[in-house]
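Section 5: illustrative case.
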């Protein structure tokens, strides 16, 4: 079974008098354990794709099956529930709460999905995710006391805390220097290899896309190529 199955996904926006077709009928299957990079120039439909894959928005037409479940026509509340339980998000801007510690930031998804979990267990789980990201000694630091790379690792720990089968990473290296970007890509590759987590990465940068085991290029709302990336498969 595919983790993600898209069938004829269309999405358009009304822009003044014009209708902009952001996705023109995208069909796609992503299997468990793939690291798929979706790449394309500005305006090609990457953000729209990310919003649909992340259940942040619904397709105009077509079907989206996530872990075998049709999520195309669920209500906003149902989508929010799926988003919190089944998907880990990593963003360009880290999106950490500034006035809370690294540990508290990682606890946040558990507050939504497991409201009755005892605080001690919540802390323990969050700590485990931070340890996996090599940040045990930074657990009581606030985001502004951490480097960009460390902040992104906190965000990845937060994405992992609910043990999702899928991580969606939207331009996760956009605010990072080259060396730190490579470090973050290695972490994502490692999550795929050691835990079998499916990764979908959205990026406009070819060097970053090259870390995926499969590279999908989109242009003007259509998939224009979809190829296995032997280099990343053979030399992780
Ligand atoms: P990318 O992320 O690759 O830059 P987008 O998905 O943001 O691409 O945009 C695809 C197309 O849809 C573009 O032509 C863009 O201008 C248009 N678009 C995206 N969001 C909106 C919106 N909220 N309203 C109107 N047009 C939009
Ligand atoms: P970036 O830092 O990559 O620009 P944004 O902060 O703009 O990312 O977020 C990308 C999209 O995801 C936005 O439309 C935003 O509303 C949405 N978003 C951001 N953070 C969350 C979140 N924690 N949960 C759900 N949606 C989010």
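Designed sequence:
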């Amino acid at each position: 079974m595919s983790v993600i199955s898209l069938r004829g996904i269309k999405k358009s926006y009304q822009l003044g008098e014009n209708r902009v077709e952001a996705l023109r009928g995208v069909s796609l299957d992503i299997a468990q354990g793939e690291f798929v990079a979706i790449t394309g120039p500005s305006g090609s439909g990457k953000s729209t794709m990310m919003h649909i894959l992340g259940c942040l928005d619904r397709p105009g037409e077509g079907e989206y099956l996530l872990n075998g479940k049709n999520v195309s026509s669920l209500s906003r509340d149902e989508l929010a529930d799926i988003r919190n339980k089944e998907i880990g998000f990593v963003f360009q801007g880290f999106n950490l709460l500034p006035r809370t510690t690294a540990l508290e930031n990682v606890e946040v998804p558990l507050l939504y999905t497991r409201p009755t979990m005892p605080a001690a267990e919540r802390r323990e789980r969050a700590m485990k995710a931070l340890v996996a990201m090599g940040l045990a000694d930074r657990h009581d630091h606030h985001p502004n006391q951490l480097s960009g790379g460390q902040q992104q690792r906190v965000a990845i720990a937060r994405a992992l805390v609910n043990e999702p089968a899928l991580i969606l990473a939207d331009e996760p290296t956009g605010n990072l220097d080259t060396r730190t970007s490579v470090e973050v890509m290695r972490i994502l590759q490692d999550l795929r290899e050691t835990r079998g987590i499916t990764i979908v990465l959205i990026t406009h940068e070819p060097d970053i896309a090259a870390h995926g085991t499969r590279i999908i290029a989109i242009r003007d709302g259509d998939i224009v190529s979809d190829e296995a990336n032997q280099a990343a498969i053979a030399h992780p």
